[in-house]
Write a structure and sequence with these properties.
Layout (H helix, E strand, L loop, with lengths): L11 H52 L7 H6 L16 E6 L7 E10 L5 E10 L3
Antiparallel strand pairs: 1-2, 2-3
C-alpha cells in the first residue's frame, strides 16, 4: 500500500532557478575575462611606451660620444621633437625636453603619449641625466 505520491526529478521552478544562477556565474566569468584582457592590453602598451622612451635615451647617450656635448645631443633630439622609428602605439608622440639645454649633465625628460586600447589619452615619462662619456 502506498501512502502519498513520490516525487522524482526537478520541478520547473527549481530548473529555472538553477538556470538563472548558472547564467549569472557565466556572465560574471565573461565580464572578469573582458576586464583582465583590457588591463593586460593597457599594461602591454605601457611597456612598449617605456621601451620607446628608453630607446630614445640610449640613442641620446650614443650621440653624446661624438661632437660638442651637449649641443650635439640637443640638436639631434630637439625640444618637442619626435625621433623617427616609433609607430608601435596608436597616435604615439615622443617628446624630448631639457631642464637646461646647455647644462652638463644634461637633464632629459622623455615623454611618450598615445591613445590607449580603451580610447583614453595615456602617457609615460622617463627622466634621466646624460653626460659625455
Amino acid at each position: 500500500m502506498r501512502h502519498g505520491k513520490q516525487e522524482r526529478g526537478f520541478t520547473l521552478v527549481e530548473t529555472i532557478i538553477a538556470l538563472f544562477v548558472t547564467a549569472l556565474v557565466i556572465l560574471g566569468c565573461v565580464g572578469l575575462n573582458i576586464l583582465i584582457n583590457k588591463n593586460s592590453e593597457e599594461m602591454n602598451e605601457r611597456t612598449i611606451a617605456l621601451q620607446n622612451a628608453n630607446q630614445v635615451i640610449e640613442q641620446m647617450r650614443a650621440a653624446s660620444n661624438t661632437g660638442t656635448f651637449p649641443d650635439n645631443v640637443v640638436t639631434a633630439f630637439p625640444d618637442g621633437g619626435h625621433p623617427a622609428g616609433f609607430a608601435a602605439l596608436p597616435n604615439e608622440q615622443v617628446t624630448v625636453s631639457y631642464a637646461s639645454a646647455t647644462a652638463t649633465p644634461l637633464d632629459v625628460t622623455v615623454t611618450v603619449s598615445w591613445r590607449s586600447y580603451a580610447g583614453r589619452q595615456s602617457s609615460e615619462t622617463v627622466q634621466t641625466y646624460i653626460i659625455q662619456r
